[in-house]
Amino acid sequence: MSGALRHTAWLAFAGAVLLGPAPIAGADQSTLSGQPADAAVAELQDQGYTVQINWVNGFDTKPLSECRVTGVDDPSSAPPSPGTFTTVYVDVACPNHDGGGFGFEAGIG
To answer: Which residues, if any, are the signal sequence (predicted)?
Structure first.
């Protein structure tokens, strides 16, 4: 590697380390989709968002930990500023039943 090329590579590396990762522009749908809804809501709130839930499937009486995120809508598409309220809408699908099969149980014995 030539001296000039090595110097350029070093500057690019140093710049990336100093600047850190680029901030996410708005709520990142791709990383939240499919996650348990409680974890996704907590993550968005930690980033400063106000979260509204759209119940798109299943029972809304289920705990969010049993539900999954199917989408995130961030109308502003910009990260929240300190002291402001930026609302994102999280689409959540929950189980349609309690897992009790067809509503009856049979025992042998």
So the answer is: 1-27
Which domain, by its residues, includes 69? Answer: 24-93
C-alpha distance across the termini of the chain, in Å: 78
**Token pair recorded at residue 70:** 């199917």
In a domain, 8, yes or no: no
In-domain check, residue 17: no
Ranges under pLDDT 50 in the chain: 3-25, 100-107, 109
Q: CB neighbours of 97 closer than 8 A, spacing ≥ 6?
A: none
| Three-state SS at 50 | strand
Split into its structural domains, the chain has a count of: 1
Could you read off the pLDDT of 1-29 as tens digits, one per residue?
A: 554 444 444 444 444 333 333 333 455 56
